[in-house]
Design brief:
This protein has 585 residues and is α+β, with helices and mostly antiparallel strands. It has 4 domains: 10-97, Phosphorylase Kinase, domain 1, CATH 3.30.200; 110-275, Orthogonal Bundle (Transferase(Phosphotransferase), domain 1), CATH 1.10.510.10; 385-476, Jelly Rolls (Sandwich); 484-582, Jelly Rolls (Sandwich), CATH 2.60.120. Helix content is 22%, strand content 31%. The protein is built from 10 helices and 29 strands. The protein has helices at residues 54-72, 104-113, 120-139, 168-175, 195-200, 205-221, 225-228, 246-255, 267-275, 326-353, and strands at residues 10-11, 15-23, 27-34, 40-47, 82-88, 91-97, 101-103, 152-155, 161-163, 229-230, 235-236, 385-386, 395-401, 406-413, 417-424, 429-433, 439-441, 445-450, 453-460, 467-476, 484-490, 498-505, 509-517, 521-529, 533-538, 544-549, 551-554, 560-568, 572-582. A 6-stranded antiparallel β-sheet has the order 1-2-3-4-6-5, with helices on one face. A hairpin with a 5-residue loop joins strand 3 (27-34) and strand 4. The longest helix is centred in the middle third of the chain and has 28 residues, at 326-353. It is globular, with a radius of gyration of 36 Å.
């Protein structure tokens, strides 16, 4: 194995190594600073395939790049974003966001030192916040494969759980191991991963639900899975360690079912089941709550200071001034009135006797009062900022807007491109102005193909306080011409629930597998290949279930023909696995 990179090593003339964060059998993780992003921290994952023949290592790299391309499409606030993939000095690296915080393994260890564990309300809160993340990645055709307390982080910034370390590297490495490889090379952690994952290597959305349930039980009990599982009866015995509400007990037991079909079909179904439970009152900060009997203590009250009847202190009364006498005040008031009246009579008499010099006195012009300039009402327009974008290189802008200000960014593309925009700013709005002046409101993540022309990005602060924002812009190369798709009907044998079909795929010739499904079933499709093949699934109505992925699921199915398009950027053999089974209640 190659030695780790030393501190201050700079890769790609951009990433400066700070320190090693961790190392496993198939990879090494570094903390680095991105010198192109104001030394922002990021994580570099180095892929180190096991020693083997050159063609095996090359195949491993191709698999890693293909999986990395799938992960790059993920855009979720509770998943570290994947930024880049590069190779240097025969080392392969993946760049992703750095999450500042502690993983749940560390949080549990801290509690165990205080003889504490996580409580049921905290477990409920964790499930409510992690399940939507799983629902998202599963809808993108991605299975995490390796959920555990080590791979869940409590982010310091907002106290939200973040899902890290997708099991891509270990999955690829396991495919390259010989049949007699040890169990240590299996995908997923022993005790956490379900049997179908450890024995056959196949994973489903329900596989992630299983590992999430095991993770929750470890946090609740402080015990490892091997202490909670009976190898002889193949049953979980965690209820001997801790007692939970019947509702949460039933949910966890169903998630832990031995057969994938007996578990919940999706994370959404688990959320629905949890939604029928009483809401948790625990705050998202997950404060340390002891697992020992709770003692409700009232905060110490500060007794009110006693009030004593004290002898009043004599007050020094000043001698009254002559001007404070009522008689003196009345006399002064009368003199002022007489003086004012006399002066007014003299002025009026003089004006009446005076001959007017100009006719303007007959119609006096009342000058218009000049309003004093008010404080700045409108902000000076900010200068348009040109963006010198380069294809394949992401530009990130961090700035601050005053109330009512709008910042305009401008760029031009001479050819059709793929544009990806990521925007974060509390209370701010962002929009994209197309060459034809059409305006598109932007969400946090926006991606689409754009034609050649001049574009503007407008960021506006409609609030009454200054706000900071972050904008990332990426232009990707135009996609290659779509390959020709040969239609291939596939069916299930009588009484069968699964079928497999293998075909030769090339960049110019793909396959469109046509599968006719009955209504109200569960359809699961998986693609396996040695090369860079991907799968796109469409419903009978033409709706895209998943695009450029490796898995897709439809539940319940609608009656009709599903289109399962398999394409590849190289020549390869691709195997499509189609599973159709009744929906489980």
């Amino acid at each position: 194995m190659r030695p780790p990179l030393t501190t201050h090593t700079v890769l790609q003339n951009r990433y400066r190594i700070v320190r090693v964060l961790g190392q496993g059998g198939f990879g090494r993780t570094y903390l680095a600073q991105d010198q192109n992003r104001f030394n922002e921290y990021c994580v570099l994952k180095e892929f180190m395939p096991a020693r083997g023949e050159p063609h095996q290592i090359q195949k491993a790299k191709e698999l890693f790049k293909r999986e990395a391309a799938v992960l790059y499409q993920l855009r979720h606030p509770q998943i570290p974003r994947f930024h880049a993939l590069f190779e240097q000095e025969q080392r392969l690296f993946l760049v992703q966001d750095y999450v500042e915080g502690k993983n749940y393994r560390t949080l549990l260890a801290e509690r165990l030192r205080r003889q504490q564990t996580f409580t049921e309300p905290e477990a409920y809160e964790l499930l409510i916040k992690v399940l939507p993340v799983l629902e998202y990645i599963h809808s993108c055709g991605v299975i995490h494969r390796d959920i555990s307390p080590d791979n869940l982080m409590l982010r310091q910034q907002d106290q939200m759980p973040v899902l890290i370390d997708f099991g891509v590297v270990k999955d690829i490495a396991s495919r390259l191991q010989p049949a007699q490889a040890s169990a240590a090379t299996s995908v997923g952690k022993l005790g956490y991963a379900p049997s179908e994952q450890l024995q056959t290597g196949r994973v489903y959305p329900a596989s992630d639900l299983y590992t999430l349930a095991v993770t929750v039980l470890v946090l609740l009990t402080g015990c490892e899975p091997q202490e909670l599982y009976d190898d002889h009866t193949l049953t979980w015995r965690w209820q001997q360690r801790i007692t939970l509400s019947p509702a949460l007990t039933n949910v966890l037991n169903k998630m832990l079912s031995h057969r994938p079909g007996d578990r919940y079909a999706s994370a959404k179904d688990v959320l629905k089941a949890l939604g029928e439970m009483p809401p948790s009152g625990t705050s998202p900060e997950l404060p340390p709550v002891t697992s020992l009997p709770t003692v409700v203590a009232r905060p110490p009250l500060t007794p009110p200071s006693p009030v004593y009847a004290a002898k009043p202190t004599p007050l020094a009364v000043p001698k009254p001034s002559p001007w404070e006498s009522p008689i003196a005040l009345a006399l002064v008031s009368v003199l002022l009135v007489l003086f004012t009246g006399t002066l007014s009579w003299v002025v009026v008499s003089w004006l009446m006797r005076r001959t007017p010099d100009t006719p303007t006195w007959e119609n006096p012009v009342v000058p218009t009062p000049q309003a004093s300039p008010s404080p700045t009402v409108t902000k000076d327009p900010l200068p348009v900022v040109p963006l010198p974008l380069q294809v394949g290189i992401e530009s990130t802008l961090n700035d601050r807007l005053a109330p009512g200000q709008t910042q305009v960014y401008e760029f031009t593309t001479p050819a059709p491109r793929q544009l990806t925009l990521t925007f974060n700013g509390d209370g701010l709005t962002a929009s994209l102005v197309m060459p034809d002046k059409k305006t598109i409101a932007l969400s946090k993540q926006w991606q689409d193909k754009i034609p050649a022309g001049k574009y503007q990005i407008l960021v506006t602060n409609p609030t009454d306080v200054p706000q900071e924002y972050r904008l990332s812009v990426l232009l990707s190369g135009a996609p290659p011409p779509a390959p020709t798709l040969e239609a291939v009907p596939i069916t299930l044998a009588e009484g069968a629930t699964q079928t497999e079909v293998t075909a030769r795929i090339s960049p110019t010739q793909g396959k469109r597998f046509l599968f006719t499904a009955p209504p109200d079933q569960e359809l699961f499709v998986e693609l396996r290949s040695i090369g860079m093949a991907t799968l796109t699934c469409r419903t009978p109505e033409g709706r895209v279930l998943a695009a450029q992925t490796l898995y897709c699921t439809a539940q319940p199915t609608v009656a009709g023909t599903y289109e399962l398009d398999v394409t590849s950027t190289d020549v390869t053999n691709a195997t499509l696995i189609v599973v159709l089974r009744p929906l489980t209640n």
